[in-house]
User: What shape does this take?
Amino acid sequence: MAAVTTPRKRRTLKQVLKRLLLIDLFKGLALTFRYNARALYEPRDGGNPLQAIYTEQYPKEPARVSERFRGAPRLNLDPENGASLCIACDLCAVVCPVDCIEVGSIRREVRDGEKVNKKKVLTTFIFDTSRCMFCNLCVEVCPTDCLELTQSFELAVYHRSGFRWDREMLEKGINYVRYTK
Amino acid sequence: MIGLITTLLFAAPEWVRTAITRERQPNVFWSEYVVWPLIQILIVLFIVLTVVAYLVWVERKVSAFMQARLGPMRVGPWGLLQPLADGLKLLLKEDIIPLKADQGVFTVAPIISVVAALTVLAVIPWGAAWATISNINIGVLFVLAVSSISVLGLVLAGWSSNSKYSLLGALRSSAQMVSYEIGMGLSIIGALMFARTLSLNGIIEAQQADGVWYVLFQPVGFLVYLVSALGETNRAPFDLPEAESELVAGYHTEYSGFRWALFFMAEYTSVIVTSAIAVTLFLGGWTLFGLESRITPMAFSIVVAVLFVLLALLIAWRGVVGEPPSVMRTVGIVAVAIFLLLAAGVAFARPFDAQSARVLFSVGVFAGKILALIYAYMWFRWTWPRYRYDQLMALGWKWMIPAGLANIVLTGIWYVLALPRPQGVFGLMREQAGRLAPTGAGLAYFIGTAFVLTIPLSWALLATINRRTRDFNLAEQRQLQMRLRRERLEKQLQKGSQETEQA
Amino acid sequence: MTEPTRTAGASHLDLDEREHTFLDANELVLNMGPQHPSTHGVLRVILKLDGETVTDLDCDIGYLHRGVEKIAEHDTYAMITPYWDRLDYVAAVSNDLLYVEAVEKLLQVEVPRRAQYLRVILTELQRLASHLLWLGTHAMDIGAVTVLLYCFREREEILKIFEDFIGARLTAHAFRIGGFWWDAYPEFEQRVRAFLKILPSRIEEYETLLNANRIWLQRTVGIGIIAAEDAIDLSLTGPCLRGSGVRYDVRKATPYAAYSDFNFEIPIGENGDTYDRFLVRLEEMKQSLLIIEQALDGLPEGPVMAKVPKIIKPPVGDVYHTIEAPKGELGIYLVSDGTGKPYRMRIRPASFINLQSLKKMAVGHLVADVVAIIGTLDIVLGEVDR
Assistant: This one.
């Protein structure tokens, strides 16, 4: 592959004729006209790169969100007893580059059958979605798979205070939607 | 507008009228020159302004389809109510006048623009017979004169905004519009030679009589007119006065709300006007291969009914079939029913008499031709990049104006050669109804010379003129100027130091 | 206009001053930006105009300064990676690659082959995405709006692949130190191959619209010429350097990731003008397609994550690492003092250094050309201001 070629200074007869007949301009026109014509008769299937119209009508049609998408945070509960999976280890808060997580905990005696363990128990969990940059680091360090970034992405609220999600909101979650491909 | 002024003059008290025009007219002119023209003006203004609003919608749709998008879809079916929403929004917007702007001029500028654009509508031959507001005998001249006033609006807007971007935009637009007006004026002269009249309706009738569209006699003229019209109306690829990526919005950077909408209206109105002139001069105006004089009320009713049915089918195809039940679908079904009823009504009642059928048909033909040209304008806009300021000037002065001049000269030569025997050589024209018309062989002669001789000859001329300017490089030129200036200054300084030494 | 008065024994300094005042009579100072449609972000260019000709210009940058280099001194090595996404935010994956490779060099970690191949695929896709965005905005600056929408359509396909693989579209946080968090999803190869099938015909479409178009040629040929020597002196890198005819590409000069395994060409220009840079980038896109295809064909099986300690504490030392980012040569100088946080991180931004040539390229041209030249430099203000 040699150097990219720029148009030569001396023109051949063919080039002169092409220039005279405005071929370069008409080729562009033909391309856009093809798109225009195809847009009129082709069925509209948003997001298909092979069709003339690519628009996805997002609020009208559901958005296509991939399974690994990192969106709204959620604190998972133990499916068996409904208790929080969080062990208040504070790793997520430590690893967060923007300090958007605050974990509140107390040390409490927890009865586990016969034994009595002194154990950290989660009290509050504040997640500031306005600062979060959805980098997934907190999810990756979570030892109990409690914290998770879900597929919900519609996080807009009318007031700034709405960005501070407390534990209840994180556990209950906003209207979580499950997207499949 | 002149039509309006004269009619108002006739409606004035007799002593005023006689004082100004020194002639006496009976009062029957009340109906002929006041009431009817006012009705015509209202109809034309209403239709044109509605069309202007919908041209914005069409432009957005066309551009969207060319760009793999959908365009406006939310306000009404397919976004059909978008112009209404836009207009309402612009009306209700805060009216901002910059603090340091020249308030009076700032307010007047958009009005000048829009008035200049709308005034021209008075002489446009929308159709045969009564479908023209004022058929003055200097129509072409009037159009050129009045439409060039609109540049004043742009210049004043740019200057009074007291903003550098606006000022640069205004400078560009004044230079551009003045330059391209020349090309435009030159390009139409060839067609006027054949028509031998400046009346717009007269030109159409001449084409009707000759049985040919003047685009065949005047391909070079038509091309030059098309390009100049693009430049004149500030449409891409010549939209430098408002080049978004360079000057933000050019002369209307500081405008918002309805003042801005006025500029927009002026722009689209002038697009309609220039297209209308192109159609009139080169594309046969409201004629369509003689059909316009032969159409019967029966045939016309069927044409209208078929159009309604096609519309209904389009709505059914795109809006009803396959749509899930919704409000829009109900609206679509109602619309289909209404259009089918209209079609049936027109087909069976046939509400047109012979003349109104002919006139309405001619109006439809004219509108169709204008829309085709406007589509081409949009097509160009969304395909090609934008010229640079100096390239635009070069194109105007070194290509369009010489091409227009060459076209005039060559057409003149072919015309004189074809005159009837005593004066001419070939004698391919004959006297017909008080004007010279080409014979059958003459038609072939004029079309042949235009395509075989005029195009290559004018191209050769242009190529010769522009041979040395092909690799025109502003940077080099600029550096050369700087070097020369530096050398001159150095020389002066040397002289100065020599003088002091001598002293 | 009065002629400058003559004074006895004037030096060259006086001459320059005089010429300056002489020019000042016609000058207009125009602030282009920081809010301007075509300064690609918050760049402020102060133009001195004579008519519409640029006689002088100055860039005012820093509107987007966030102090990433300083932030890095307070964060652990893993926490810094997402900040790199936000430097050149239209080529986040390439930035990530540079950073994680630098840390891996410090740690002396060997990244599995599969991870390296996947990294190449993703960074080349990112190069395509970045070039598509550049082409679209560059064409729009010159007035061809339609190209923008076409380019964004293809870029959207790449972003969809990213979203499925990485979980985010723009600021991806694609790589972790040592490899990947996720392995490729099952249909990944098939999706990328489908995209590779589409793109060549789409590049042809852009070429139809632009390459031979006389207006495009008039607007780009001979605009913003920079000679090879000047380009080297100004330390230009990437397509801006190659457009001037210097065959230098970090992928070939000092191969990183798995680039030494693949065959590809380095396209270079002849004249160093805007048109040549345009052609070079288009050709680079085609070469990227070849690289991706080779990487997909040879994609090995195996793990995607190396054995990396949970808490990253590189030994005392420093490392300089560069990659060929879409904008040019992106470099990082990383000093470790043995703790969990870097002692110093220094970025060599490609856009910032390329932007310094704006004055040399644009003086003497028209305002419209300044827009074209800013476009051809392909700057991203996130990277310029850091």
About this structure: Residues 157 and 163 of chain A are 7 Å apart (CA to CA).
